[in-house]
Amino acid sequence: MEPDCRVLSIQSHVVRGYVGNRSATFPLQVLGFEIDTINSVQFSNHTGYTHWKGQVLNSDELHELYEGLKLNNVNKYDYVLTGYTRDASFLAMVVDIVQELKQQNTSLVYVCDPVMGDKWNGEGAMYVPEDLLPVYKEKVVPVADIITPNQFEAELLSGRKIHTQEEALAVMDILHAMGPDTVVITSSDLPSPQGSDYLIALGSQRIRRPDGSMVTERIRMEMHKVDAAFVGTGDLFAAMLLAWTHKHPNNLKVACEKTVSAMYHVLQRTIQYAKAKAGKGQKPSSAQLELRMVQSKRDIENPEIVVQATVL
Question: Per its UniProt record, what InterPro entries does this chain match (predicted)?
Answer without folding.
Answer: PM/HMP-P_kinase-1, PyrdxlKinase, Ribokinase-like
